[in-house]
Amino acid sequence: MENDSKRELRDLLRFTTAGSVDDGKSTLIGRLLYDSKSIFEDQMDHLVQSSKRLGKETIDLSLLTDGLRDEREQGITIDVAYRYFATPERKFIIADTPGHIQYTRNMVTGASTADLAVILIDARKGVLEQTLRHTYIAALLDIRYLVFCINKMDMVNFSEKVFLDIREKLGQLADRFDPEEVHYLPMSAKYGDNVVEASENMDWYEGPTFLRLLETVEIKKSGNTSVARFPVQTVIRPQSVEHHDYRGYAGRIAGGIFHEGDEVVIYPSGSKSVITSIDVMEKRLSEAGTGESVSITLADQLDIGRGYLFAKKDDLPREAQEIDLMVCWFNEKPLRPGGRYLVRNYSNEVPCIIKSVNYKMNINKLEKETSDLLVGMNDIASITIKTVKPLCFDSYKKNNITGSLVFIEEGSNDTVAAGMID
User: Fold this and answer.
1) Measured between alpha carbons, how far is 387 from 119 in angstroms, rounded to an integer?
2) Residue 349 CB: number of other CB atoms within 10 A?
3) Looking at the structure, do residues 152 and 58 belong to the same domain, yes or no?
């Protein structure tokens, strides 16, 4: 049973799509679902009726993911659309993200849990500012597997030269971020060339189709799978006759593997104890790993609550009050240097002030900008914060759960930003 669970996790691929406006992201996902026979009959009927109602001559496959009325009327993606499908080889979760600059925050949200980023490029336009922006965000979120889809090849007569020219520029861009793997794929999402079936119009391309690439790519997980972290969400005290003395600490394992008998260090107190049991409902486990929700009991009676963190003594988290991080600003009101915000780091919440803005990223040039430090909506910047008490954390690349922060405005309770600790 345990092996089946681990195999299922390994066979699940989370990927996000990104690209400039009207590059065909939603059409690609629609074509992928349509050609792989992953659309239900009622969805197909609804798709046909919606296409007719909008005056389309043929079925518009982008309507499968563009669910908002404004999206359908304007032919663009605004919100993040999640879709789930499976083939005999693998299960997939897709986050179709918007291409407009003003929806950069939505792209960050959709890509934050992805293993792989699919970035579309219009073959007629080549590499644009949004290509740079989305490639940079993928690197910032530690997405190490990139697939560049050069779409609309039908509109450049399926030219191999056009594809090779764009591929060369994309290769120079990718080299700046040192990803684990990069793939380049010519396609026509509208007509299905190289999406599920190999294209007869591009017989010069000898690589896999888009679906075959997704089915076969081997994702090597980052440090998340090796560094042992367990944030406490709540304390379980049944106080029943059967479980009178039971005190379990419930949460979801954020990295590594915990075993019964492991010695752990509890933060922020620094206390040490030994795991006496790992429980899931009525079942007792000898071990549990990344992504599993469990209740852990300890040999010692300690004062532990929500927001505490368990770690193994051989790889401890950092602890500090002044923290440098990259932040993507979500709110219409700009970031206020000296302003107070509430930060949430895994299950831990603590007030902070913005000590300084160090630089903003100029996405057009992929350069640091220090002359204009006003951080507005969709800007990406390096900042330093100071918390009222020490935080226990890792760098984002070491563990993207303990290394990420959410900023909340105390007065309105609005989520205003997401941050990745350097």
Assistant:
1) 37
2) 13
3) yes
CATH number of domain containing 349: 2.40.30.10
Interatomic CA distance for residues 177 and 322, integer angstroms: 27
Would you call the peptide bond into 268 cis, given omega within 30 degrees of 0 as the criterion?
Answer: yes
Q: What global pTM score does this model have?
A: 0.81
Are residues 73 and 185 both part of a single domain? yes
- The CATH number of the domain holding residue 139 is 3.40.50.300
The reply to whether 178 and 251 lie within a common domain is no
Together in a domain, 289 and 409:
no
Task: Write out pLDDT tens, residues 161-201.
Answer: 999 999 999 999 999 998 999 999 999 998 999 999 999 99
Helices and strands (DSSP H and E) totals, the chain: 8, 23
Same domain for 53 and 164, yes or no, is yes
Are 47 and 108 part of one and the same domain? yes
Residue-range definition of the domain harbouring residue 231: 224-312
Provide the pLDDT for residue 422: 84
Count of structural domains, the chain: 3
**Does 377 lie in the same domain as 265?**
no
Question: What does the pLDDT look like over 297-320, one tens digit per residue?
Answer: 999 989 999 999 999 988 899 999
Q: How far apart are CA 118 and CA 16, in angstroms?
A: 6
365 and 261 co-located in one domain: no
Give the up-direction half-sphere exposure of residue 178: CA atoms within 13 A in the CB hemisphere.
0
- Nearest Cα to Cα of residue 255 among 309, 176, 321: 309
Alpha carbons 75 and 298: distance in angstroms, whole number: 55
Kindly report, residue by residue over 360-404, the tens digit of the pLDDT: 998 778 889 999 899 998 889 999 999 999 999 999 989 989 999
Final residue belonging to a domain, choices 185, 202, 220: 220
Contact between 290 and 255 under an 8 Å Cβ cutoff? The reply is yes
In sign, the C-alpha dihedral spanning 362, 366, 371, 376 is: positive
State which of 273, 290, 312 marks the end of a domain: 312
CA nearest to 47, candidates 66, 32, 28:
66
| Helices within 11-83 (DSSP H only) | 25-35, 41-53, 69-74
Quick count: other Cβ atoms within 10 Å of Cβ 334? 14
Residue identified by tokens 């029943």 is 240
3-state class of 393 per DSSP?
strand
SS3 of 211-249: HHHHHHCCCCCCHHHCCCEEECCEEECCCCCCCCCCCEE
Q: Kindly give the pairing relationship between strand 234-236 and strand 248-252.
A: antiparallel
